[in-house]
Design brief:
The protein is mainly α. Helix content is 74%, strand content 4%.
Length: 477
C-alpha cells in the first residue's frame, strides 16, 4: 500500500505535516478530513509505489461516447477550478470523482494517469479522441503554450455551450411537427383499415357503379391493409440507395449539394453550418492556434462535403500567400453536379412511384382493368413530371452561393484590421439568430400546413365515400 506525505491545517490554523498509508489518494484525503484536518498538499512519499507497475485503476464498463452536454459541463467546471488556482491534476481528479460512470469518467481517469507519468494536458487528452476531439485538444495546446489555460477553457466552454444550445433548439422545434405527422398518419391508417372496407362491402352489395375517386380510395385502402409493408419498403430503398451513394467521395459531394438546395430546409442547413464553422474558426484564431491548423480543424467540423472543399481551397490559397476572403468568394458557388441532379430526380419521382405501387393493386381490389390502367397512367405522368420539375428547379438554383457576400466582406474587414476572430464571432452570432428565427418560423408554418393536409385528406375520403351514396339516394328517389 502506498504511503502519502501530506501538509494540512487543523481547526486552529496550525500547519500539520505527516504521512499516511492508503490505497489511493482519494482515500488518503478522506481519512485526513475525518481526522479534522484541511489538506493543502498531498503526494506519494518517495521510495513507495503508488500502484503496481503497469497497473491502472479499474475502468467501469461504458457503451457509446460521451454526451456533448456532459463535456460542456466538465469544461465549464474545469475552467472554474483553474481560475481558482487549483493544480490541473487535482482539478481533474475532483471532476473525475464527481462524474458518473461512463465514457467521460473513463477518459478522465486515463488523462490523470497520463499526466502522472509526465504528459501535458493536451497530450493526455489526445489519447482519448472519442471524447476530446481535435478542436478541443488544439485549443488546450494553445492555452498551455500561451500560459492562459483558464482563459482558453472559458472560451471553449462558451463555444461548446452555444453549439449545444443551438442543437437543442433545432431538435426541440422538430418534436411537435413530427409528433403531429405520426398521429395524423395513424388516424388516416385506421380510417383506411376499418372504415373504408365497410363502405366497400356496402357498395358491392348494392352493385353501384363507383366513380373514379371512390375507386382510388378503395385501392388505397386495400393497398394499406394488404401491402402496408411497401409503404415502408419503398422509402427504405430510397434511403438505402442514398446511403450507398454517399459512401463514395463524389456521391457524398452530390448528396450534400442536394441537401443545401432543398427549399427552406436547405437554407436552414446552410446557415447552421456557417454559424458552426465561423464560430469554430473564430474560437481557434482567438486562442492562438495557427491559421492553417485552425482551418483544417474547421474543415473537419463542417459536416458537409461542399464546405469541406471550400475550406480546403482556402487552406491551399493561404499556403500560396493569399488571404482568406478571396478563395472563399471564388469557391462558394457549387455549380452542376450529376449526382445532385440524380437525387433531385429521385425526389421528384417518389410520389409517382408510390402511385404506381398503388396502381398495381387497383385491378385486384376493384376488379376493373380500367381503374388499374388509369392509375398506372397517372403514376407514370407524376413520375415524369415530378422528376422534370425537380431537375429544372435544381438547374435554376445550382449557381446560387452557399457563402453570402456578407460573410466574405466581414472576413475581409477582419483580415484588414487584424480583428478576424471578432468578425467571425459577429458572423456566427448573426447566423445563430437567423437559424433561431427560421426555426421558429418553420415551426409556426408547419402547423397550418399540417392542418391543410389533414383537411384535404379527410375531405377526399368523405367526398369519395358519399358520392356513391348520393347517387344511390337519387336513383331511389
Amino acid at each position: 500500500m502506498p504511503t502519502f506525505q501530506f501538509e494540512a491545517m487543523d481547526a486552529t490554523g496550525q500547519e500539520i505535516k505527516d504521512i499516511i498509508e492508503a490505497a489511493t489518494e482519494e482515500e488518503a484525503q478522506t481519512t485526513i478530513r475525518q481526522m479534522g484536518y484541511f489538506v493543502t498538499k498531498i503526494q506519494v512519499k518517495k521510495g513507495t509505489a503508488k500502484s503496481a507497475p503497469g497497473q491502472k485503476k479499474k475502468r467501469p464498463f461504458a457503451i457509446g461516447g460521451a454526451k456533448t452536454k456532459h463535456i460542456c459541463a466538465f469544461t465549464r467546471q474545469l475552467s472554474i477550478l483553474q481560475d481558482a488556482g487549483l493544480p490541473i491534476l487535482r482539478s481533474l481528479k475532483i471532476l473525475e470523482h464527481n462524474n458518473k460512470p461512463g465514457k467521460l469518467k473513463n477518459a478522465l481517469m486515463d488523462v490523470c494517469d497520463e499526466i502522472e507519468t509526465g504528459a501535458t494536458l493536451s497530450e493526455a487528452m489526445s489519447k482519448s479522441p472519442k471524447v476530446f476531439n481535435r478542436l478541443y485538444v488544439n485549443m488546450i495546446k494553445a492555452g498551455e503554450a500561451g500560459g492562459a489555460l483558464e482563459t482558453i477553457l472559458q472560451r471553449l466552454a462558451d463555444f461548446l455551450e452555444a453549439a449545444e444550445a443551438l442543437k437543442r433548439k433545432v431538435k426541440g422545434a422538430m418534436i411537435y411537427p413530427i409528433a403531429v405527422v405520426i398521429i395524423a398518419g395513424l388516424i388516416l391508417a385506421l380510417i383506411m383499415k376499418f372504415i373504408v372496407p365497410t363502405f366497400k362491402e356496402m357498395f358491392e352489395e348494392f352493385g353501384l357503379p363507383l366513380p373514379a375517386p371512390t375507386l382510388l380510395l378503395i385501392a388505397m385502402s386495400d393497398y394499406i391493409v394488404k401491402y402496408w409493408f411497401l409503404m415502408l419498403l419503398i422509402p427504405f430503398c430510397y434511403w438505402l440507395l442514398a446511403k450507398l451513394i454517399r459512401k463514395f467521395r463524389h456521391g457524398r459531394m452530390g448528396f450534400d449539394m442536394f441537401m443545401l438546395k432543398l427549399p427552406v430546409f436547405g437554407s436552414l442547413i446552410e446557415k447552421n453550418i456557417l454559424a458552426r464553422t465561423t464560430r469554430t474558426l473564430g474560437t481557434l484564431v482567438s486562442s492562438g492556434v495557427p491559421i492553417l491548423e485552425a482551418l483544417n480543424i474547421t474543415r473537419e467540423t463542417a459536416g458537409n462535403a461542399l464546405f469541406e472543399r471550400i475550406f480546403a481551397k482556402v487552406t491551399e490559397a493561404i499556403r500560396e500567400g493569399e488571404v482568406i476572403s478571396k478563395p472563399m468568394r471564388e469557391n462558394s458557388t457549387p455549380g452542376f453536379h450529376p449526382v445532385a441532379a440524380f437525387f433531385w430526380l429521385l425526389l421528384g419521382s417518389f410520389p409517382g412511384v408510390m402511385t404506381l405501387s398503388v396502381a398495381l393493386t387497383a385491378g385486384r381490389t376493384t376488379g376493373t382493368k380500367g381503374s388499374m390502367e388509369s392509375l398506372l397512367m397517372v403514376g407514370g405522368v407524376m413520375c415524369g413530371l415530378g422528376a422534370v420539375l425537380c431537375v429544372l428547379f435544381y438547374l435554376m438554383k445550382m449557381r446560387s452561393r452557399v457563402i453570402d457576400e456578407l460573410v466574405v466582406n466581414m472576413v475581409d474587414v477582419g483580415e484588414e484590421t487584424g480583428e478576424l476572430d471578432t468578425m467571425l464571432y459577429k458572423v456566427a452570432d448573426t447566423y445563430d439568430d437567423e437559424v433561431n428565427v427560421m426555426t421558429e418560423g418553420l415551426t409556426r408554418l408547419i402547423e397550418p400546413l399540417l392542418i391543410c393536409f389533414l383537411g384535404v385528406a379527410v375531405g377526399f375520403i368523405v367526398i369519395s365515400l358519399f358520392m356513391p351514396l348520393v347517387s344511390m339516394i337519387s336513383s331511389l328517389a
